[in-house]
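#struct-help
A.M.: can someone run this one for me? Single chain, 302 residues.
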Amino acid sequence: MQTIKPSILHLLTTAKNASPFDVNMAVDAGFDIVMPYTNLELAEVAGLAQDAIFSRSPSGVKREALFIGGRDIDLAMAMMAAAKNTMFHPFACSIFADPSGAFTTAAAIVAKLEWHLKQQFDQALAGKTLCIIGANGPVGGCVAIIAAQLGMRVQLLTHKSVSTLTEKVARWNSQYQLSMQVVDGTTEQAKEQALEQAQLLVCAAAAGVRLISQSQLQQAKNLTGLVDVNAVPPSAVDGVSSDMDGQLILNGRAFAVGALAVGQLKYQTQLQLLKQMTTADQPLYLEFNAAFKLAHDILHSH
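D.P.: on it. Structure tokens below:
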């Protein structure tokens, strides 16, 4: 009788430590062993991937996977490509990139926007103007890319360095064939002008910082929905609580989604993607597009 080999998740990260969140999720998803590799550089990924796939028979390789963490979404995608490029049939295993949980969190944010916009106002995302505050971070940046791929007009508002974000967005526009725009939000007046154009809003900036006052929110006359992912008081948007999940605000003309609703969908999405790798017959390559598709399907399955 053939012995079933234990399932192994090799967790690769450029960070000093592996995320306990990711380790717990992997174990809960059914992996028998989770092995972290920390402080990695991109050049080391190919060698580690080869060690993983060549140390087992083809049947054993099916029982392992790579998870790519870190904090940089571009570096995570590069690490995923480096690992994938070392593989060939039948020596290939699944790979899931989710740096700092940004891919699954961003997927949950966009899926919630899509769901509530349809439920509340029977409208689609395509063609809508989305303003993102906190796009310098991994979650905001990933939200921007997913939304732009869905046909939204994406404006990335920065309240810090315009030049740094402009350089990053130019690279994303070239890489993903998009036309996202950077908007100056370094002054209150500039921020208010951007909010006037926004139909949808995502706040994904640093936790515990109030970014939009109630008066500024009232002036955003075209706004139909917003997501605030800050779970640490005060909320980024005045009047939005972390437990909101589609409640109408602004006299019924906009919906609001808070951090807890996003977090629940993010958790379900990450857990199910990890589970998919434990049972897949063929290698899966999972990143923000796969995460959004699953988050969308989860909402539409209820």
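A.M.: thanks! The chain has two domains: 8-97, 104-262.
D.P.: also worth noting: The mean pLDDT is 94.
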